[in-house]
Each structure stands twice: as structure tokens, then as C-alpha cells.
Amino acid sequence: xxxxxxxxxxxxxxxxxxxxxxxxxxxxxxxxxxxxxxxxxxxxxxxxxxxxxxxxxxxxxxxxxxxxxxxxxxxxxxxxxxxxxxxxxxxxxxxxxxxxxxxxxxxxxxxxxxxxxxxxxxxxxxxxxxxxxxxxxxxxxxxxxxxxxxxxxxxxxxxxxxxxxxxxxxxxxxxxxxxxxxxxxxxxxxxxxxxxxxxxxxxxxxxxxxxxxxxxxxxxxxxxxxxxxxxxxxxxxxxxxxxxxxxxxxxxxxxxxxxxxxxxxxxxxxxxxxxxxxxxxxxxxxxxxxxx
Length: 292
Known about the structure:
The protein is α/β, with parallel strands linked by helices. The chain contains 11 helices and 11 strands. 45% of the residues lie in helices and 16% in strands.
């Protein structure tokens, strides 16, 4: 029998937020996947609009199972979904994400089973609120510095999430980044799946709350790296703003990769730092021009 994939989706007042069409597209495309063993679990954050009516209709038609109750944030919802999931594998989507390739799940399940993969990651289209779309290519060797790939384009073994004690819900924006760092530090086996099957929308709250995002990244770095090197606020600022990591830390992180990949890891980290510095300088220059 083929293994079950549990797709966990979080929702909250999607009628009021005008995201019903997005959700309908997501469920429709999941229902058209050629892989037969897909379980759809919707974790609703106690919506106060007509979201529950929509979800009940889908449940009555046999498309989904859903639970509606208060939670801390979407990652708390994802954790609740994992606890209720029957699948060997799990994936995490928001209500306005979708998988545009209807053969993807069958191919990925075959790929994961044949490689005994703990997780897979893939390219994904990222849609900004302005309508701008770009392809987010994975940069797994930079995973300790920046978010290396889209969580929506990843599939995990459920047992891996459980062994890591789930998403850390104190991180409202980047608990998925924290999870990826912890997976790599525990040496779980990840594989690149070289096909883009995902389209997702950038969370608007991330764009609206840059300072909160910065502080959360600093907390994630401190949590995961404080046992490897001395860290203070100035160092953490540089790590977040320009990906400038202490060399002692990079050398220790490099050991987590196979010997033949360690130099590539260090090279990629330096390249990410260089690109981030250039981006910061360009932004400062543009701001200066606008003020004159």
C-alpha cells in the first residue's frame, strides 16, 4: 500500500479576508492530484465569519477533515495538524498557496521512498502582494544563514517533525526556518527535488513588520548557535542584516555537511554575505537619492 501524505492547511476568516477563491483553487488542485493517498487536514483558527460554513461543505463532500479552535499562530495550527495526521509524510500550506503540478505528489512520494528521504525541498514561485512573482531557487548550503527554500515546496516525514518536537510556536514568522536549521543540525537526510510544483503568496505581515522579523531571526540564531560560539547583540545584528557569520561558527557548521561539500558550503556562505552587503548598500543609496 502506498504511504499517506497528510497536507495540513491553516485558515482564519478567509471569507472576510477575500481568500475563498484561493482556498477553492488549493483544494481543487489537491483533489486532482494523481496520487491516491492524500489526506487534507484544515486547522482553522476559530474563525468568526462564514469560514466554517465553507469548510463544513468541503468536509460533507469528503474532500477534507477540519478542526476549528483558538491557536497561537499558524505554526501552532500546523503542530495540531501533525498530531492529528495519519500520514507517513506531511506538508504544510496556507490557504492561498497551491500545488500547480497535479502529478507532483506521485513523483515525490516515489522519490522519497526510493531515497529513504527525511525531507525534500524544491523551487517555488513566490507571489508578492504587489503582484510581482519570482522563482525562489533552493540554496541549501546557505540554510544556516537565510531561509533556504519555500516551506510550501517541502515535504517531510512526520516522524522527523515529531523527533524535533514540532515547530517552535514562539516564532510567529519564521518557525519553519528554525525547523530547517534544527533538521540540518540533527543531520536528517534532505534531497533536492528538481521540479517546481508550488506557487505561494508572501505573507503580508512579514513585509509590514520588518523589525519584528529581524528580532525573531536574531532569536532563532541565538537559540541554535549559542552553544557553538560566543554571540552578542552586535554579532547577531550582522548575522541577520548581512549574513556575516563568525568564522568559528561557520567552521563548526561546515562539519555538518559531507567532507566533499564543506568548501562549497563556505564559498556559498561568503557569496550570500557579499550579496546581502550589496543589497543593503543599494537600498541605502536609493534612500539617500530619494531624500535629496
